[in-house]
Design a protein that fits this description.
Elements (H helix, E strand, L loop, with lengths): L1 H29 L3 H37 L15 H34 L3 E5 L5 E4 L1 H7 L17 H6 L1 H4 L1 E7 L4 E13 L2 E10 L1 H41 E2 L2 E2 L7 H32 L7 E4 H17 L4 E5 L6 E4 L1 H18 L6 E9 L2 E8 L6 H4 L17 H11 L3 E7 L3 E9 L3
Parallel strand pairs: 9-11
Antiparallel strand pairs: 1-2, 1-5, 3-4, 4-5, 6-7, 8-10, 11-12, 12-14, 13-14
Length: 450
């Protein structure tokens, strides 16, 4: 209704201006009365000014409304154009009210999320493609011992090239970095995720200081190692001490050495047997120490770029050789497309051999089968070695990575510990799951070369 009145007013003004314009032409053409000419001219110009002011006033009100929306100045609109714009004025104010409510809700959500981020114990850092830091929460600043952070390059004040290490997370997704901050040495686990917001790529990095957890886990690991070492050494020293005492008893009397005439053939035979046993235990201890040195001194991987399917086709005959004598079938399922890794071929080959050998030893009956499945997930390639052997109990499964822990009569107990250390040196992870009487699954996660 309001718009109809506006249209009617404009049309009437235009008609009157047109009629007055015709009259003005007639006056100027057919009469010499100057007063009439002046009066009609002033009236015609006045009508045009009224029309222009009327339309401009409406435009100004509309512009004021739009400007208030643009600059978030949500003061109620009041279009002073009489009753004709009462409905429009009401609609404008309703729109402003809804926009104001939406803006308040948006602001409330922003404060809520900001408060939530600041209360999180883990650090959160986001940055754009120009390395400008958009968000860093309170915990993040505390972990890094910084007062503020506006650009990734500021991280280099903590440690040289730290910004490059953070940017490289887009390739490896997860990385543990040791940092000497202002107050202490920290071991920080960084994790990366990329998100897309309105066609902008935002890098999100979460991080936390895991130094205390690592120290606790390290202490537990050393306690387990010391327990195993003590057990192994005492198992050797006990018999050696006993045999040594027995041999000394044969060859001495009241702390004095016996003469040859005092010894008989049975004594000498017992002594030789005892010395052989001592030598065997000594060899066992030497082998144990050698294994311990291997575990403690895993060489750094000599990485080279390889294509995973090509590499597995090279290694597969070696793995088949482990299965032939036991008549175990082994299969490899390659990836459908080429994907590249950077690995130490010898070390990864040794890990695969060790895991497949364990799988063959777990298969006791005929009809054994081992599958090696390859799969791609995000930035990792996973090689899963699955057997249908006797499986591992949950109690044993929790202990299998402890150095020197073994359930085999002739096992050293370092194979799995060494394998996991090798995989971790490659930036990956070795995971094992198993069900008794069903089988075992060993997964090697290795980062892809982008």
């Amino acid at each position: 209704m309001g718009f109809n009145r506006f249209n009617l007013t404009v049309v009437l003004l235009c008609v009157i201006i047109a009629i007055t314009g015709i009259a003005l032409i007639e006056v100027w053409t057919n009469t010499d009365f100057k007063i009439a000419k002046l009066t009609v001219s002033i009236f015609w110009i006045g009508l045009i000014i009224i029309l222009i002011r009327y339309v401009n006033k409406t435009n100004r009100n509309l512009n004021q409304f739009l400007e208030s929306i643009k600059y978030a100045d949500y003061v109620s609109s009041d279009i002073q154009s009489g009753k004709s714009f009462k409905e429009l004025n009401f609609s404008f104010n309703e729109i402003i009210r809804y926009v104001r409510l939406a803006e308040l809700e948006k602001e409330s959500t922003h404060h809520y999320l900001r408060h939530l981020l600041d209360e999180m114990p883990s650090g959160i850092l986001t940055y754009d493609n120009k390395e400008k830091v958009e968000i860093i929460n309170r915990a993040g600043l505390k972990i890094l011992d910084l007062d503020s952070l506006s650009n990734l390059t500021q991280l280099n004040t903590i440690q040289p090239k730290l910004d490059s290490e953070i940017k490289d997370l887009s390739l490896v997704k997860k990385k543990v970095i040791s940092l000497q901050t202002k107050n202490e040495l920290k071991t920080i686990l960084f994790q990366h995720k990329e998100i897309l917001i309105s066609s902008r790529r935002i890098q999100v990095v979460s991080f936390e200081n895991i130094r205390a957890e690592l120290d606790l886990e390290e202490e537990k690991a050393w306690q387990k190692i010391f327990r195993v070492l003590t057990h192994e050494i005492m198992n050797s020293i006990g018999p050696i001490r006993s045999l040594t005492a027995s041999v000394l008893k044969i060859f001495s009397n009241n702390n004095k050495a016996k003469t040859l005439n005092q010894l008989n053939e049975e004594d000498i035979e017992f002594a030789v047997t005892g010395l052989k046993s001592i030598d065997n235990r000594n060899n066992g201890l030497t082998s144990f120490v050698s294994d311990f040195k291997k575990l403690m001194r895993v060489p750094e991987p000599k990485k080279e770029q390889i294509e995973i399917n090509h590499f597995m086709n090279e290694v597969f005959p070696l793995l088949q050789g482990l299965c032939i004598n036991k008549k175990i079938k082994i299969f490899f399922n390659p990836l459908p497309k080429s994907n590249f890794l950077t690995i130490d071929k010898e070390q990864i080959t040794q890990v695969l051999i060790n895991l497949v050998k364990n799988a063959t030893e777990a298969i006791k009956d005929e009809g054994g089968k081992i599958e090696i499945n390859s799969s791609l997930a995000e930035n990792n390639i996973t090689l899963a070695i699955i057997d249908n052997g006797e499986g591992i109990s949950q109690e044993v499964l929790s202990e299998i990575f402890i150095p020197f822990f073994t359930t085999k009569k002739e096992g050293s107990g370092i194979g799995l510990s060494l394998s996991r250390q090798i995989i971790r040196n490659h930036g990956g992870e070795l995971k094992i799951s198993s069900k008794k009487n069903i089988g075992t699954k060993c997964e090697l996660d290795l980062p892809i070369l982008n």
